[in-house]
Amino acid sequence: MSRSLWPRWARLSQVERVEAYTRQSLLVLLYGTPVFLLLSGSDRIADGGGALAVVLGASLVVTLVAARALRAVMDLYPAAAPVPWRPVGALLAVAVVSTGACIALPEGPGRVLGLTTWGVTVIALVGLTDRRIAAAVVVGATLVPTVLTGRAWVALVALGTTLFFVFTVRASLWLLGVVVEVDRSRTAQGELAVAEERLRFSRDVHDVLGRHLSAIAVQAELAATLAERGDERAAARMLEVREHAHDALREARELARGYRDTSLERELDGARSLLQAAGIATSVDTTGLDPAWHEAAGWVVRESVTNVLRHSRATLVTIRWTDDGVVEVRNDGVTAPPGSRGSDGRGLVGLRERLAALGATLHAERDGSEFVVRVDLPTGGAA
């Protein structure tokens, strides 16, 4: 038996072991209580003659019904589920009937049966989330022994024993609920971390490949135009297309391995190269930008330049950092109507979310004859 139990126990997680230990401990307490009371009161039961069979039979029935109710109560934790009325109601009904039998029996057997009945009832029901029922059970477990014996000091003993059962059961179930909730929180945190990593990876893929593919499209179109004219420069343009394809492949591999970090200097160099290849002049001034914001500024440059290549007819792109904490990318190839804030494509939406997580705010809108992507950076570095 022990050999079959050990592999099963070894396969359980730590939380499942805590749950199994708590459940079995409370069941042992429930089954052990009537055994202890019956053994300690065996002389009183023997003196009752035919009452022995009644006490043993009633105790067995009450204990089995209480065990079923206790299992139902333990299933409530940690969720505040509705009261399982069927097992709870069955136990309360059996307890009332058993109490009536206690009154009909001689004093000795009746006292033992009363203590057994309300002892297991308290253990089974004090864990209920409905405290009114739990309180009623505690009152009953205190009053019944007092009434059966007719002695005031018994009330104190019964109350102390009942409170011990209340503390033991509720503390055990509370601890079980805390352990389960902590485990669920850790699981949720792990799933959230995986989701965030997937989102980060998808954004990086969009940023890296989007920029290179935009450049490849521009260069290929230019090469095709030159080839139609018989211009020898078409071959040079195709070599640039090949170079961009190799760069995209290399960066995609680095991204997959998790080695690629965003560098503002590299992004600025890449932006100059791409814009120059597309015949677009650049003006860059990021002097004084806090190094803590270099990575975020690199995101802004990468996405803005990609959008210029895809959507605008710009001849000049200006990238600058202002003393009031603003990174700004302007281009003079406006295609949006006056007053428009621009269409927030997936790239800008993702960029806005990434910056918001750092405490920065992104604005994309038309400003006169220019389209501006502006990012307000908080002081003190990235959050």
Give the topology.
Blueprint (H helix, E strand, L loop, with lengths): L1 H9 L3 H27 L1 H5 L4 H24 L10 H20 L2 H19 L5 H19 L2 H77 L4 H25 L6 H14 L3 E5 L8 H18 L4 E7 L3 E6 L14 H12 L3 E7 L2 E7 L7
Parallel strand pairs: 1-2
Antiparallel strand pairs: 2-3, 3-5, 4-5
GO molecular function: phosphorelay sensor kinase activity; protein dimerization activity
Keywords: Kinase, Membrane, Transferase, Transmembrane, Transmembrane helix, Two-component regulatory system
Organism: Nocardioides flavescens
* Mass-distribution shape: rod-shaped
Give the number of helices.
12
Low-confidence stretches: none
Which secondary-structure class do the elements indicate?
Answer: alpha+beta
Give the helices and strands as they follow along the chain: HHHHHHHHHHEHEEHEE
Residue share in helices?
over 70%
**Total discrete domains:** 2
User: How big a fraction of the residues is strand?
Assistant: 5-15%
Number of strands: 5
Give the overall pLDDT as a whole number: 79
Report Rg. Answer: 38 Å
How many angstroms separate the termini?
57 Å
Pfam families: HisKA_3 (PF07730)
Keywords: Kinase, Membrane, Transferase, Transmembrane, Transmembrane helix, Two-component regulatory system
Transmembrane segments: 21-39, 45-67, 88-106, 112-128, 135-156, 162-180
Domain Signal transduction histidine kinase subgroup 3 dimerisation and phosphoacceptor: 197-263
